[in-house]
Amino acid sequence: MSMKILLLGECSREHAIAEAIARSTHKVTLYALMQHMNPGIRKCCKDTGGEVVLGNFLDPEKVVQVVKDKGIDLVVIGPEEPLFRGVVDAVEEKLGVPCIGPRRGPAQIEQSKAFMRYIMWKYKIPGRLRFRTFRDVAEALEYIKETGESVAIKPARQVGGKGVKIVADVQAYLRDVRTRVKEVHVTRLYEEMAKYTDIEDKILIEEKVEGVEYTLQCFTDGEHVLPLPLVQDYKHAFEFSIGPETGGMGSIMDKTYTLPFITPEEYEKSVEIVRQLVHAVKKELGIEYKGIIAGQMMLTTLWGPTIIECYARFGDPEGVNVLSVLETDIVDIFEAILSKSLPKIKLSFRPCAVVVKAVAPVGYPLNKKLAQGHVLDIDVKKIEEKGCRIYYGSVHEEDGVIRTVGSRAVEIAGFGDSIPEAAEKVNSVLRYVTARDWRVFYRLDIGQEETLKKMIEQANIIRSVYKSRNVEELKIYEWIPGKGLRVIEY
Known about the structure:
This protein is α+β, with helices and mostly antiparallel strands. It is built from 15 helices and 25 strands. Helix 8 runs antiparallel to helix 9.
């Protein structure tokens, strides 16, 4: 029996999903709806007898129309914004066509950071952090004036992984300066968040924690959670994790399900946190969460595995790591999600480490207009000769010419017996992506042996602290402006 699948999205993550669908043993015809012509996704569609439709995949009505016109049997959502706009709700309610991706309600787990924090406290899920949300900038400013705590100031809505400011109040004589930094950031953040009318909370201020970050991505059918190998993402634009935050300049995955600095026990605790979140969403909303859910985790001295944010889809580039070596038929996984039979699926991956690195045009991420419209020259043959694979991102191809759209242009995956070996392979081919009359940049440090050693050392220190604490008896005193001290019991 043949199946027509429609994929929404146009970047490297979606290219990896398209590639996984195209290699399915099922008789699949792949269609894709995107705003820019991604040559990698177009090839996957062509190879299966399908096609690309150019259009606004964020518009529920447009998606519904394409599903009707093409006789689609299944819709797979790549990025988060279609979920927030209610695309899944529209397709399933108006046409009865199933989707891989949560409905708008459950997708709040990513859209609203406040919602995620709220249900974690309500249902006492491990790895929760103290937080406060603000809809009014004056209240937020008053709060940070009176509290002397080290905090993380974040947009309350998902805005592409950017806008986070960490301020540590550790030197008393600098408190006034740090308070001013907080005030400036809160004001700028509120102005930026004003354009989002789909969420009431604008600013989230939560307790600051430090540690080693990693991402746990999972398939879920609403009852069961099928975890994937851990991946670590590198957000900062430049080497040694400096510069502005991006959507992700690269990511690493080991041969096993864990990473060199995360133990199997910590992996299982991370899975349990995500599993409890899935169940909490159903309890809170009465709607089952189905599709992909990911926890952006951090190993902290407070909890050990601690959840920082949730994704309602594959990460980018983290999704490329796992999907590029996934041997289990992804269509079988999709069908198991829809039939709530995920426990029957046995995941299999090519036994190798995977390092992914992004190549971006200069201007990204702070000035995307400056990064747009530049012609790319890509020597795909030489990249593949080195055993690497290219995934097209924020580009548009027309008449055989590939131009940048403003974000990460391509991601290159390298494979090896170890993370450093895979990283070296990618480093050796990054020079084969260039821009005419412009410059591109990338990070060479991701996955290097020295970087891993530092993370292992940091994780060992953190581990010795959190394991020595009895979390159940942990009490923290919090200053509430206008009310004084109160005890927070975890």
